[in-house]
Specification:
The structure holds two protein chains of two kinds. By secondary structure, chain A is an alpha+beta fold. Helices cover 28% and strands 24% of the residues of chain A. Chain A has three domains: 172 residues, Aldehyde Oxidoreductase, domain 4 (2-Layer Sandwich), CATH 3.30.365.10; 149 residues, Aldehyde oxidase/xanthine dehydrogenase, molybdopterin binding domain (Aldehyde Oxidoreductase, domain 4, 2-Layer Sandwich); 327 residues, Aldehyde Oxidoreductase, domain 4 (2-Layer Sandwich), CATH 3.30.365. Chain A has an eight-stranded mixed beta sheet with strand order 1-11-12-9-19-16-17-18, sandwiched between helices. Chain A has a five-stranded mixed beta sheet with strand order 14-22-21-20-15, sandwiched between helices. In chain A, helix 1 crosses helix 9, helix 2 runs parallel beside helix 3 and helix 14 runs parallel beside helix 18. The relative contact order of chain A is 0.12. Chain B is α+β, with helices and mostly antiparallel strands. Classes of the chains: A alpha+beta, B alpha+beta. Chains A and B meet through helix 5 and helix 17 of A and helix 1, helix 2, helix 3, helix 4 and helix 5 of B.
């Protein structure tokens, strides 16, 4: 058995910050001179002599629709014929860095937000060059030419399709500041066009990371330490090697890998390994211990994240205290984590459904000791991402295994490996104190948050000097309500589990906490929770706009069927505003049923309203699954859940009706991959409170506590 | 060497008899349209038809397919019901990440092959074994209803 003497996964993550600054290949390489058959004004699009427009997208398609939205931005300004537009996945290259992150990666609902202008400029530049080419061909003034649906038209009626202009257009200078359309002229932006990636996803031809096949490739399945930070102290692989098709057994810092001809053989081999583990420092880790650690931390003063007025001086007619808790959560992407790596003499090539091409290029160059430009990243379709595929654990392990085996290696996590592979949404506890004056208006709001730091866990960020993890407090720190005395504190607590970004990140738990406590204050004030919020949002028109629209569309205040009750919540995350009204009943056994969710959102200018609405609905389902079922718990250092029987997913028979409404907005476009999630849990639990009088302060919802 | 009937073709694979059909399809035969999701028949991503009935190929050993016909997503465009379902999926733009959709379509085709006028309850019963983490359930339901209407027209 081979053994790698390499730093641990955590060390890789910790050092990855160093490599992000490395020089990446220059963008200019991609903006090459056109061949006879193509016009390629920049890295982002090509026009073929056959009139076909190819938009090259550096972002990862994980279901959020970015492989349609980005082409819409380019095609709009190009005045392309949408029926001739196709999309192509870009390589890793500086040209495709995420304008918000400064490195090529997909996440944080940044794609449309960051590319709104750059991608339109890419299309507009090409359009101006095509007009110049036509004007030159016709010997007319460019000002006499316009474009429509993939063609340049002269005022005389002469017309040339873009495909006929590719050679002449390639000779035109690239305009530096191409003129962009006014929104009133949009024909493609704002349309609910069908996704470009649908056909390959209904006939089985779409290729995900899991579907990669290379000549001579081995499939690896990994025996991971059963406890975070555990190490294999002895490995007996004699039985594993007797399994037909098993070729190699290799120990790496991440665990012990069995490499075989296919997954089934590798898994059988992995299951036949006999390993003695040193469980290390986390052998005693338990969820009860985590709860205790976090809860006790909220009894002490934390680092100040926000402080307005003086909560100490505010005395109300009525005060409220509450402690809220949320568990670790796995992302549970439908496609378990996997990556294929091939370490060759002249560099590395990887094939993976990854959200982080840029960081991977740097990190893997370290792993294989090559230059970053020798790392080629082939981004496959992602069978779900939700933040999990931003992590490099599976690409690092696959690269090590290819390097040590000398073969192309596809590393596949079983569902159990994926579920027990950490990178969880952090567990978190928040202690609230609030005060109302005699009129029922809130005069004071204090929140003490205790949670692990995602910034520190990320490997590419550090806790800022004030000691406050931005992801730890988002959703509470940005409380929008007009409350004169407001204080938010943060206490970093590290139970020892690798935490990570999970769809909507800190908002996923903090918005549940804060919006629920606001609901508690409304109830204590004897006020309607919608009106209570509305009165406190006088300076927040966008919050108020979505809140009012959701209430109106849901028929807030109107009668409901017997036993069905409403709850409401409103949250801004990633620059987008979403309010949701949930209609919920609770049966005799305490089981909640969500009948309908009505959402209203404001994400600024909308590129594709159908995709926006579907993303909101998707986030509602993701949030509802977490609220009803989601928890990763530890006992004796081990994760107790393993597969969908003990980490259940919402299914067809539990699916509520969902209605999504868009508030018309001229604000800058922002993302919708995540913002539909945060208001869901507090809206549902507020409805449960109406139905039962019982306040849910801990997720997931426990039906035992709601029994009649 | 095991002989299998997959999508009407006789194919041979050098695998152990306990190998799940899923891995014979994906690794031995290179047909990657059928997806691996859980390995325990809990998510439905691996759904194929065995003599027309939907099965979870991740948990069905290849020995169970002896003398039977396996049908996968790759052949859906050649069947009347499959074609109608795929068309409805495109019309309703159902997939998001798309990873579960091969299995969803296989379950939907099996439902509509035996029941051309499914009720909401029938759809719940036939489809609740298929998880979609992107939450496309309402679009799946609409597409099934649409395909049913096409098929009974």
């Amino acid at each position: 058995m081979k053994t790698a003497f390499k730093p641990s996964r955590r060390d890789f993550l910790k050092t990855s910050g160093l490599v992000i600054g490395f020089t990446l290949p220059a963008a200019s390489r991609l903006a090459q001179a056109a061949t006879a058959a193509e016009f390629k004004p920049n890295a982002y699009l090509r026009v073929g002599a056959d009139d076909r427009v190819t938009v090259v997208v550096g972002l990862s398609e994980m279901g959020q629709g970015v492989h349609t939205a980005i082409p819409q931005l380019v095609a709009e300004e190009l005045d392309a014929d949408w029926t001739r537009v196709r999309v192509e996945q870009a390589p890793v290259d500086q040209a495709f860095k995420n304008p918000i992150f400064g490195i090529q990666a997909t996440g944080g609902s940044t794609s449309v937000n960051g590319n709104w202008e750059p991608m339109r400029k890419a299309g507009a530049a090409a359009r101006e060059m095509l007009i110049a080419a036509a004007a030159q061909t016709w010997q007319v003034d460019a000002a006499e030419c316009r474009t429509e649906k993939g063609a340049v038209v002269h005022k005389s009626g002469k017309k040339l399709s873009y495909g006929k202009l590719v050679t002449a257009a390639a000779k035109q200078p690239v305009p530096k500041e191409p003129k962009l359309k006014d929104a009133s002229q949009f024909k493609i932006i704002g349309q609910g066009l069908r996704r470009l990636d649908t056909p390959q996803k209904v006939n089985g031809s779409g290729k995900y990371g899991m579907d990669v096949r290379l000549p001579g490739m081995l499939t690896a399945v990994l025996a991971q330490p059963p406890v975070p930070g555990g190490k294999a102290v002895s490995v007996d692989d004699s039985r594993a090697k007797q399994v037909k098709g098993v070729r190699q057994v290799i120990q790496i810092p991440q665990g012990v890998a069995v490499l075989a001809d296919g997954y089934w053989q590798a898994k059988k081999g992995r299951d036949a390994l006999q390993i003695q583990w040193d469980k290390g420092a986390n052998a005693g880790l338990s969820s009860d211990g985590v709860t205790k650690m976090l809860t006790e931390a909220t009894q002490q003063e934390g680092k100040v994240a926000r402080n307005e007025g003086n909560v100490g001086s505010a005395s109300g007619a009525k005060t409220l205290d509450a402690v809220y808790e949320a568990p670790y959560l796995a992302h549970a992407c439908m496609e378990p984590m996997n990556a294929t790596a091939w370490v060759k003499k002249d560099g590395i090539e990887i094939w993976a459904g990854t959200q982080s091409q840029g960081p991977n290029q740097g990190i893997l160059s370290h792993v294989a000791a090559v230059d970053p430009q020798q790392v080629k990243v082939n981004t496959m379709l992602l069978g779900g991402g939700f933040g999990r595929r931003f992590a490099p654990d599976f690409t690092i392990a696959a690269t090590l295994l290819s390097k040590m085996s000398g073969k192309p290696v596809k590393l596949v996590y079983s569902r159990e490996d994926d579920m027990r592979g950490y990178f969880y949404r952090p567990a978190s506890v928040t202690r609230f104190t609030g005060a109302l004056d005699a009129s029922g208006a809130p005069v004071s709001f204090t929140a003490r948050v205790a949670s692990p730091s995602i910034m520190e866990a990320s490997g590419f960020m550090k806790l800022p000097p004030n000691g406050v993890d931005e992801f730890g407090v988002e959703g509470t720190k940005d409380l929008p309500y007009d409350i004169p005395n407001l204080r938010v504190e943060y206490s970093r607590q590290e139970p020892g589990v690798q935490v990570w970004f999970w769809r909507s990140v800190g908002h996923s738990q903090n918005s549940f906490f804060s919006e629920s406590f606001i609901d508690e204050l409304a109830n204590a004030a004897g006020k309607d929770p919608f009106e209570f919020r509305r009165a406190l949002l006088g300076k927040q028109p966008r919050y108020k706009g979505v809140l009012e629209m959701a209430a109106e569309k849901a028929g807030w205040g109107k009668p409901l069927p017997q036993g069905v009750h409403r709850g409401i919540a409103v949250v801004q995350s990633f620059g987008s505003y979403v309010a949701e009204v949930a209609e919920v009943s609770v049966d005799q056994d305490g089981r909640p049923k969500v009948h309908r969710v009505v959402a209203a959102l404001d994400c600024g200018e909308v590129v594709n309203p159908q995709i926006v609405k579907r993303q909101c609905e998707s986030a509602i389902v993701y949030g509802l699954t977490a609220a009803l079922y989601g928890k990763i718990t530890f006992k004796d250092g081990q994760v107790e859940q393993s597969n969908f029987h003990d980490y259940p997913m919402l299914r067809m028979n539990e699916m509520p009706k969902v209605e999504v409404y868009i508030v018309p907005s001229k604000e800058h476009a922002t993302g919708m991959g995540e913002p539909g999630l945060p208001p869901l849990a507090p809206a549902v639990t507020a409805a449960i409170f109406k139905a039962t009088g019982k306040r849910i302060r801990k997720l997931p919802i426990d039906p035992e506590t709601l029994k009649a | 060497m095991i002989t299998l009937n997959v999508n009407g073709k006789q194919l041979q694979a050098d695998v152990d008899a306990d190998t799940p059909i899923l891995w014979v399809l994906r690794d031995a035969l290179g047909m990657t349209g059928t997806k691996f999701g859980c390995g325990m028949a809990l998510c439905g991503a691996c759904t194929v038809h065995l003599d027309g009935a939907p099965i979870r190929s991740c948990s069905t050993p290849v020995s169970a397919a002896a003398g039977k016909k396996i049908t996968t997503i790759e052949s859906m465009s050649t069947s009347r019901v499959g074609k109608a379902v795929q068309a409805a999926w495109i019309k309703h733009d159902v997939p998001q990440c798309g990873y579960c959709q091969s299995g969803q379509i296989m379950s939907a085709v099996a439902l509509l092959a035996s029941n051309t006028k499914p009720t909401d309850h029938d759809i719940d019963a036939a489809m609740s074994g298929n998880v979609c983490r992107c939450g496309t359930y309402n679009q799946i339901r609409a597409a099934i209803m649409d395909a049913a209407a096409t098929l009974s027209a």
